[in-house]
Amino acid sequence: MMASPSPLTIYDTTLRDGAQGEGVHFSLSDKLRLAERLATYGVHYVEGGWPGSNDKDREFFPEAQKLRWGSCKLAAFGSTRRANIEASTDSQVRLLLEAETPVVTIFGKSWLLHVEKVLRTTPEENLRMIADTVAFLKKEGREVIYDAEHFFDGHADDGKYALRTLEAAAEAGADYLVLCDTNGGRLPTQVAEAVREVRQRFPESKIGIHTHNDCGLGVANAVAAVQEGALQVQGTMNGYGERTGNCNLTTLLPILELKLGRKVLPEGNLRQLSELSSFVDQLANLHHDSRAPFVGRTAFAHKGGMHVNAVNKLAASFEHIPPALVGNSQRILVGELSGGANVMMKARELGIDLDEKSATTRAILSKIKKLEKEGYEFEAADASFELLVRRSLEKIPAPFLLDSYKVEVARVRPQAKETSKATVTVCVNKKTRKTTATGDGPVNALDAALRRALLPSFPALKKMKLIDYKVRIVNSRGGTAARIPEAGIEPATNRLTADRSTAELLRKSGHSLYRSLAPCSIPFGEVFCTRRGSNAQPSASEADTLSS
Q: pLDDT of 229-243, one tens digit each?
């Protein structure tokens, strides 16, 4: 569907509503960087914060005046005046003016439950609070966006009163009437019905929508409102927000442009969406959601053999849009559900030509399935896959062999800290080395001992860091498929005694470290051949499975 110009506006509230999400924290400099990035990206409004709530938001607005805003408008957020005072004398309303933004967004109560139980005022006074605040801000020359908080709950409880609150804002001059599903409990059909009624009641007003994601319907409800004529959508990047979050703009924007034909961004900017999504997560110091629609790392990842076979012939057979439209890319995964096409296409990504139906490809696929059955994973380990393929094609030998290891975890006194010591024996370039190291736990000690043994031959390991670590044990007889590994302390020696679960965990950990360090031990253009003594060769299983 061809996108066409649309009066629909995007209102980003990541810096305020998004920052209310658990684990989301922005420093002042973070807020400024993100505000400028959002303005450059092409959203129409950026809500900078609530100056009446904290010092950081008050400090933000003077600094924000120095940024490049282009056609984007900066909004300050606050509430209607308090009960029984003038809007001009309400301190938090005055702070909205002092923010000196072209736009002010205020929220008011639409639900009688909140009016009577939370504000503890009368329905008529609540209407005056809304009207007075909007009129005062309009008189001061601001564009006023009125957020009708809890509108859908209020509409379901007492529809006549909920509509009267909108009427109060509209008659006072509000530029937008934004209907808020503040508790996130409405369904798309309910949202559509209410928006339809409001548009009929207020044909001259611009209606907006603000949804939360408590039922997982934040985006769906926003789409329903847009299809009924809403002209503004409020949301946050990556769906940040209180509880389960707000309408996710990184999901909504592609739907608007690519599915509904509503062009809301400058030409070509949708292709920057994946990068913007990652930027916001990095700024908030949060892990990126790999399964996020459109922008997640796995959004266009294919693993099943039948799927990959089809995608190799025609990408659209299993991709609803070309990934590049949102700045993402197709990824081929390999694993136990793979077919020959997975191996061929993944190898192609790495610059290796394989025939899908060749004996070599079938052998590689068979090895992958065998290793995955044993608990290894290749879909997140491209280096492992590449080494396996290259060894199959080029017969690359192992750079070193791990002959033996021993790990001790001891506590000299009942209240003392446990100490871990590992001893490893490796064979490198026909020479046997035995080293010992201590560490913060058995795996760290193993890592340190193994590195100490290998560094003289492989100095590149100095640059390698262990940043993540996971071991899966698939043998239920070992105990860990059904329960946490158990261990005890021998009273006489204060030495840790491991059951089969813990022993298996350490065995797997040792082998994982061995497989991780091996790729970094193969210098470019040179291969170290490792033997057990003068004539010994690495076993087939060791050579084939050695990878990161």
A: 999 999 999 999 999
Q: What is the pTM of this model?
A: 0.72
- Sign, CA dihedral 228-233-239-245, equals negative
Q: How many CB atoms lie within 10 A of CB 307?
A: 21
Contact 322, 359 (CB under 8 A): no
**Is the model's pLDDT at 128 over the cut of 50?**
yes
Contact criterion met (CB below 8 Å) for 232 and 208: yes
CA 126, CA 116: separation in Å to the nearest integer?
A: 9
Q: Is the pLDDT of residue 533 over 70?
A: no
Residue 516's alpha-carbon distances to 397, 422, 454, in angstroms, are 15, 17, 13
Half-sphere exposure of 324 (CA within 13 A, CB side): 3
- Give the per-residue SS3 of 255-277: HHHHHCCEECCCCCHHHHHHHHH
Task: Name residue, tokens 């299809």.
Answer: 227
Query: Over the range 127-153, which residues count as b (16 or more CB within 10 Å of their CB) and which as e?
Result: bbbbbbbbbbbbeeebbbbbbbbbbbb
The residues facing 498 across adjacent strands are 487
The bridge status of strand 73-79 relative to strand 103-109 is: parallel
Contact, 471 vs 505, CB < 8 A? yes
Decide if 80 contacts 107 (C-beta within 8 A): yes
Number of helices and strands in the chain (H, E)? 18, 17
Rounded Cα gap, residues 506 and 526, in angstroms:
32
CB 338 within 8 A of CB 365: yes
- pLDDT band for position 17 (50/70/90)? very high
What does the pLDDT read at residue 544? 35
Calpha distance 104→93 (Å, rounded): 10
